[in-house]
Structure formats: structure tokens, C-alpha cells
Design a protein that fits this description.
- The complex is a heterodimer of chains A (112) and B (115).
- Chain A has 112 residues and is mainly β.
- In chain A, 0% of the residues lie in helices and 54% in strands.
- In chain A, strands 2, 4, 5, 9, 10 and 11 form a six-stranded mixed β-sheet that branches. Chain A has a five-stranded antiparallel β-sheet with strand order 1-3-8-7-6, with no helix packed on it.
- In chain A, a hairpin with a 2-residue loop joins β6 and β7.
- The relative contact order of chain A is 0.34.
- By secondary structure, chain B is mainly β.
- Chain B starts with a strand and ends with a strand.
- Classes of the chains: A mainly beta (112), B mainly beta (115).
- At the A-B interface, β4, β5 and β9 of A face β5, β9 and β10 of B.
């Protein structure tokens, strides 16, 4: 079993839809949770960062962390074609030297 | 915000030659940087953790003599692919974390093609 599970998709939604992306994990030591967006042939771009459980909102993006269920989510409201990319969840246990553990990434396609 | 600069963005080299990739933290000091490799349509695979002033820590299965990592300063880490072969062709990405209150920042990646 992988430490982090993420549905690879692809996920196709129409423009304006609400997108829900999810990851589950098994390591209870994870404390820091991140969502990255990666366009083809580019480095991952940090979208959301959350420490421990709770919700965080930034514009059209909302991140949720439920440590009791070991489940994290990213919601994208009013999705746009420019949101078409691969979304990676990632998490780590500690400080600046701690390794990141990634999900496999979900490919999202927002259609006109 | 924290910025990580990676160069070159792409490189083509002949089989048997060596290629150096640079990763710089522009507005923060990074005692630790991470090097990843990514194959098409796959997630990032951690290759090694680069530690300023000391030896890098390599993940299982990564040849340390082939992928040389140097972290000589708090803002620069380099990855050298030695005696490159076509199977080393891949997308290489570095990252660092400015503070525990921030996520990890990634470079823009280097696409290596060995011919």
C-alpha cells in the first residue's frame, strides 16, 4: 500500500463546475499538507498549504484536511480552462529538511 | 515569496558526456534541497536530499556515483549527471523549503535529453 493514494484521473469537467480532488494517506506522522498544480513540462506550483486539520480558502481554491480520517481535499470553484493541469497532493512530517511524499497526481481537464 | 531558480530549463547532450544542473534559492537560505526525477505522466520521484556542507542522502536505487550532488553554499545545489545515457533522459526538478510555515517551492525543472 502506498503512503499516499490519489486517483490519477483523468477528470473532465465543464467550465464553471466545482472540482473536488482528494487524497488519502496512511502515515499519521504527516503534519503539513500541500496541493500543487503542474502544467506539462513545468515544475509544480504551490497552490495551498495547510498545517494539521482544518480548512483554508484562497480565492477559488479551498483545501480541507481531516487528520482523523487521513483524508485531504482540494476544491476548485468556477473552474476555468486554464485550470487544466495535473494536481498533486503532498505531505510531510516535520521541518525544512523533511521529505515530501506525493500522491500520483490527478489530471484535470476543464472543457469549454 | 520563496523563489527557486533552476538552470538550464532544457539540455541535449551526447551519450557519455556529463551534464550539470543548478538550483538556486533566490530570496532565502536553504540548508536542505531536494532533487526529483519525473517521467512522463508520472509523479515526482525523490532522488536525493542535498545538505549544505555535507554529503547528500540518496534514495534507495539511485546511483550516487552517477548523480553527483554538491551543495556548497546555502543558496546553491548542483546535480551532475555523469556519463549520461539515453535512459537518463528525464525531467529533473529541485525544491527547497524556506520555513516550516511555508510549503516547498520547486524550480521550473530541467528537461534532459541524451542522444
Amino acid at each position: 500500500q502506498k503512503e499516499v493514494e490519489q486517483d490519477p484521473g483523468p477528470l473532465s469537467v465543464p467550465e464553471g463546475a466545482i472540482v473536488s480532488l482528494n487524497c488519502t494517506y496512511s502515515n499519521s506522522a504527516f503534519q503539513y499538507f500541500m496541493w500543487y498544480r503542474q502544467y506539462s513540462r513545468k515544475g509544480p506550483e504551490l497552490l495551498m498549504y495547510t498545517y494539521s486539520s482544518g480548512n483554508k480558502e484562497d480565492g477559488r481554491f479551498t483545501a480541507q484536511v481531516d487528520k482523523s480520517s487521513k483524508y485531504i481535499s482540494l476544491f476548485i470553484r468556477d473552474s476555468q480552462p486554464s485550470d487544466s493541469a495535473t494536481y498533486l497532493c503532498a505531505m510531510s512530517g516535520g521541518g525544512t529538511a523533511s521529505k515530501l511524499t506525493f500522491g500520483t497526481g490527478t489530471r484535470l481537464q476543464v472543457t469549454l | 515569496g520563496a523563489v527557486v531558480s533552476q538552470h538550464p530549463s532544457w539540455v541535449i547532450c551526447k551519450s557519455g558526456t556529463s551534464v550539470k544542473i543548478e538550483c538556486r534559492s533566490l530570496d532565502f537560505q536553504a540548508t536542505t534541497m531536494f532533487w526529483y526525477r519525473q517521467f512522463p505522466k508520472q509523479s515526482l520521484m525523490l532522488m536525493a536530499t542535498s545538505n549544505e556542507g555535507s554529503k547528500a542522502t540518496y534514495e534507495q536505487g539511485v546511483e550516487k556515483d552517477k548523480f553527483l550532488i554538491n551543495h556548497a553554499s546555502l543558496t546553491l545545489s548542483t546535480l551532475t549527471v555523469t556519463s549520461a545515457h539515453p535512459e537518463d533522459s528525464s525531467f529533473y526538478i529541485c525544491s527547497a523549503r524556506a520555513e516550516v510555515n511555508y510549503g516547498y517551492t520547486f524550480g521550473s525543472g530541467t528537461r534532459l535529453t541524451v542522444v
